[in-house]
Design brief:
Layout: H1 9-21, H2 28-37, H3 41-54, H4 57-66, H5 72-85, H6 91-100, H7 104-117, H8 123-128, H9 135-148, H10 154-160, H11 166-179, H12 182-190, H13 197-210, H14 216-225, H15 229-241, H16 248-257, H17 262-271, H18 275-287, H19 291-304, H20 307-319, H21 323-334, H22 339-351, H23 355-366
């Protein structure tokens, strides 16, 4: 026990680790005192872990008592340790701290701990705390409701999307995505039209992460009418993540005409499993008069890694009657950076009698 009073923090840390490993309930009072009062954060952390291992009713009761200490630091540490232990008996006392404590750090610690331990019946009590004047507390409550994942919280989270605080609005979108029942997903889609660009971007991002295909129409509409490039980037990538084949024409148009968004559109196209995309891109490599667009289409085909594209281009490069298309097919194939394709281009160089095709082959092989 004397080692826990040593002036050396590393010795105190090792002492509480040892006591935790021994499940030393007789030392629980001293370990609780260390977890609440030790000046070293690492010592307090390992004391909390030791208390979790020992796990007696006595420990929980002493920590709950610590929530009512006149010291803000002790109340904050008690709230934190109760979260580490994760005993549901601490839920109501922690909610009481959120309701009544005057210290912002204590409230924040209590909210973080509730994310670990709150039982579903207390969701209603948490929702009531969304009226707290402190935006940090509201944000933590919103995050806690998302972690719990209760459908009961959806209506409240939809309301918090319009909170006066930006971080609370953003956290509400993330929490709706974590719950992700039909009502929550519909709310995310509705918020693609929110007046706050950050909310819109995070709604688009979350819908993409979740792969919500029914959001494709709204995301496409957003691409057409929103002026923000950053918003469009999020919408484009989300269309790719949800495998929105209906967006292929629009994405290819953006990839070929908007240099600022071309990379994002190209990435999205490469995520979508689409024969239509392959055919349209192959056609661009062969027929478009703009060299940048042809090269970009070939680059996207390379990223898609679809054998149909290679087969189509090889067929044109080796047998099409149009000299220009054979040249363009060779140029497109050169973007794939593959040794077998390089050998194919060497073969075309040796077999094709066209000077233009031979010149194209030499140029791409040297490049």
């Amino acid at each position: 026990m004397n080692l826990m009073d040593d002036s050396d923090a590393s010795i105190r840390k090792n002492a509480v680790i040892h006591l935790g490993d021994m499940y030393a309930e007789k030392s629980a009072d001293k370990i609780v005192e260390t977890a609440l009062k030790d000046p070293n954060s690492k010592v307090r952390k390992h004391a909390a872990i030791a208390l979790e291992k020992i796990g007696s009713d006595r420990i929980i009761n002493k920590l709950i008592k610590g929530l009512n200490s006149p010291s803000e630091k002790i109340r904050s540490n008690a709230a934190w340790v109760l979260g580490v232990i994760g005993d549901q008996r601490a839920a109501e006392p922690l909610i009481e701290r959120l309701k009544t404590d005057d210290d912002d750090e204590v409230k924040e610690r209590a909210a973080l701990s509730l994310r670990e331990i709150v039982p579903r019946p207390l969701v209603v009590d948490l929702i009531e705390l969304l009226d707290d004047p402190d935006p940090k507390v509201r944000q933590r409550i919103v995050e806690t409701l998302g972690e719990i994942g209760s459908p009961e919280a959806v209506a409240a989270l939809k309301k918090q999307v319009n909170d006066q605080d930006t971080d609370v609005r953003w956290a509400s979108i993330v929490s709706l995505g974590q719950i992700s029942n039909e009502e929550a997903l519909d709310a995310l889609i509705e918020n693609l039209n929110h007046e706050d660009d950050k909310v819109k971007r995070h709604a688009a991002w979350k819908l993409g992460e979740l792969g919500i295909e029914k959001a494709s129409d709204e995301l496409m509409e957003l691409l057409k009418k929103d002026e923000s490039k950053q918003m469009k980037q999020h919408a484009i990538l989300s269309l790719g993540k949800i495998n929105a084949e209906k967006a292929i024409d629009l994405l290819i148009k953006i990839a070929m005409t908007d240099e600022e968004l071309s990379w994002h559109a190209s990435e999205a196209i490469s995520m979508i499993d689409s024969t239509k995309a392959v055919n349209k891109l192959v056609n661009i490599t062969l027929t478009d008069d703009n060299k940048w667009r042809r090269k970009n289409a070939a680059w996207i085909l390379r990223n898609i890694k679809d054998e149909r594209a290679v087969e189509a281009l090889v067929g044109v490069a080796t047998s099409h009657r149009s000299e220009i298309k054979r040249c363009r097919a060779v140029e497109a194939l050169s973007q794939f950076k593959d040794e077998d394709i390089r050998d194919m281009i060497v073969s075309i160089l040796n077999k094709d009698s066209s000077k233009k095709v031979q010149k194209t082959c030499r140029k791409v092989l040297q490049g």
